[in-house]
Design brief:
The protein is mostly helical. The protein has one domain. It is built from five helices and no strands. Helix 4 packs across helix 5. The longest helix has 15 residues.
Length: about 70
């Protein structure tokens, strides 16, 4: 499926971060339906910790990496 909207153009698939984020961590986010960076950033860190099997420190690091992409 090809989408050509401005919003999609600004988002980045989580798989693009596989050089900075371990694959098993990316998989944890995909398991809760977060396939893109903005989908992850739409959640509160505490909510991500509860929904995934990740520690808060790990979630904070992922959020930091993803935010840097949009700065």
């Amino acid at each position: 499926m090809f989408r050509d909207t401005e919003e999609d153009a600004e988002d980045v698939d989580l798989q693009e971060f596989s050089d900075e984020i371990d694959q098993w961590i990316i998989d944890e986010f995909k398991n809760i339906g977060c396939d893109t960076a903005k989908m992850v950033l739409d959640y509160d860190v505490n909510d991500l910790v509860k929904r995934t099997d990740l520690e808060e420190e790990t979630v904070n690091e992922v959020v930091r990496i993803l935010r840097e992409e949009f700065e």
